[in-house]
User: What shape does this take?
Amino acid sequence: MRQTAGELTRAEFDDAQSAAAMYLVLVAETRRTPGSQTSLREANRARIVDAVKKHGGLTQVELAGATGLSAATVSNIVKELTGTGVLHTAPSTRSGRRAQYVTLAHALGLVVGVHYSTRHLRVALSDVAHTVLAEHHMPLAKDHRADNELDRATLLIADMLDSVDSGMSELLAVGIALPAPLKSATGTTARGGILRGWDAVPVADVMQRRLQCPVFVDNASNLAALAEARLGAARGKENAVFLDIGDGIGSGLLLNGRLFRGHNGSAGEFGHITIRENGPLCRCGNRGCLEAIAGGPAILEALKPTYGPLKLGDLVIRAMAGDDACIRAIADAGKHIGVAAANLCNLLDPERIVVGGDLARSGELLLGPLRHAIERSIIVDDESIPDVVQGQLGNRAAVLGALVYAIDQVNIATDEPARS
Assistant: This one.
């Protein structure tokens, strides 16, 4: 017979976490004989468990690098901890070679990540060891409405849970990424008109009532930055900026290892920096915003007399195929974004800039001009200029970030550490 939601959640976490937590006790006890082989073994086990918890999952080779232990020691300890139900291993591939991917045991519970963009919906289901079990992607109508799309996500979540032989009672938390500035206190959009059809909708409250589990909402660029920091191109960087360049332009700010959301939760609205006084009207109501000059719709509008209606993906494909006008349009956008990014770098001094979003698929056609504009405008010496790299997670960055965010909140609730 199925347990109730509360009983299931507590039972899962008590059983699954107790084995890992036991090692902290053992380490403390064996420190009384600090030179003993028992003390060394337990310390090594704890280092491996801590590394897996911190990163969500690593191959055995990566574990050796993260812990400083030999490959043989890591292999032996992983085998032992897998047998006792602390860790789980699965076949994987790294750089074309077979590898064993190590995570915490799967029996920790299930979470969902949801990403609404202006034209797409992505939903992913994972366990709290960051193993994605199911994922769904579908297009959305222009100017989609919150009520319809929240209904759609609810049905998708139920279907995905059913596909892995689970139910709503096993869902621990849901993270939702929205492409708009949000008021952190209420989870509603901070400014009307930026995400039409979603103004003043308390998304977290609405979905929490439907799903009967905690729901956490954040800006999509913030969550994409979080995913790149944990799983992608900003991994290991304490100070980094994620630029989300597509239909809109946003950013996620990673400062001292944590996401910076600002006083009200609306920090990082990079696309609404004014770069041309009395410039074109932006959807936010102001004039001369970066997004109104270098965002996807502005680029496509400028090309419309030549090509007619285009989608952003069409623009990227044409540019990568060698279309001169499309290449110039992307390069011009990169220059404008780079000048604005240089100002951001002069303020924050990041170590790395990660560029994601639909336009980032054009690679160096965008990154090259962007990088050169930063180099011309930044005040630090050449050795201190931040790296500018393409994101590693592509269009999945925000939905994976929503999963990471939900898992972090579950860990906080169970007194586990979370970084952001």
Remarks:
- Residues 264 and 405 are 18 Å apart (CA to CA).
- Residues 1-34 have pLDDT under 50 and may be disordered.
